[in-house]
Amino acid sequence: MSDTNHSDSTRVAFVCVQNAGRSQMAHAFAERERDRRGLGDRVELVTGGTRPADAVHGEVVRAMRDVGIDIGDRTPREVAFEEIRDSDYVLTMGCSAEDVCPAGWAGENRDWALDDPDGKSPEEVARVRDEIERRVRALFDELESDA
Predict the structure, then answer these.
(1) Nearest to 69, CA basis, from 133, 13, 141, 14
(2) Residue 134 lies in a domain
(3) Mind giving me the DSSP string for the chain?
(4) pLDDT at 1
(5) Beta strands 108-111 and 10-16: pairing type?
(6) Rounded to an integer, what distance in angstroms lies between the CA atom of residue 6 and that of residue 4?
(7) Which of 51, 65, 42, 4 is nearest to 23 (CA)?
(8) Going residue by residue through the chain (147 aa), what tens digit of pLDDT does each one get?
(9) Any bridge partners for residue 16, and if so which?
(10) Pairing, β 89-92 against β 108-111
(11) Is 0.85 topped by the overall pTM?
(12) How many domains is the chain partitioned into structurally?
């Protein structure tokens, strides 16, 4: 865990431009993974966008419902500078982190370089969703091994 921690928990931020697709899916899978592993007191999750959309993309809501997760009531939000600064990991979804990660920030940034599901076919959205789920599981494996 990095020096940016202000408590015993690890903060993970899932960030994108619109916070309407990939980062919403990643955040929902991370919530589920955190609960399954009993890490609620050790992992804090944040999601947001640099220019949030008005709503989560419909095709993303449908794709997540197909795997038993309802994100239909979620609203894209702007991520605050402080949320990023105070995060141990910032995961961007395929958009540059240059306008996201503050100078002097000591955390770790990873760009997952995922295709934007907006306007894509259900099959393409499902492929992106499944890749996000795989990466979230791997991240939690890593978080558990570091604890």
Answers:
(1) 133
(2) yes
(3) --TT-SSSSEEEEEEESSSSSHHHHHHHHHHHHHHHTT-TTTEEEEEEESS--SS--HHHHHHHHTTT---TT----BPPHHHHHT-SEEEESSS-STTTSPTT--SEEEE--PPP-TT--HHHHHHHHHHHHHHHHHHHHHHHHH-
(4) 41
(5) unpaired
(6) 6
(7) 51
(8) 444 444 679 999 999 889 999 999 999 999 999 999 999 999 999 999 988 999 999 999 999 999 999 999 999 999 988 898 899 999 999 865 556 655 556 678 888 999 999 999 999 999 999 999 999 999 999 998 876
(9) 49
(10) parallel
(11) yes
(12) 1
Residue 3 lies in a domain: no
Q: 26 in a domain, yes or no?
A: yes
Give the CATH number, domain containing residue 91.
3.40.50.2300
Within a domain: 4: no
Full residue range of the structural domain in which residue 47 is found: 10-146
Structure-token pair, residue 130: 């499944």
Rounded to an integer, what distance in angstroms lies between the CA atom of residue 78 and that of residue 108?
20
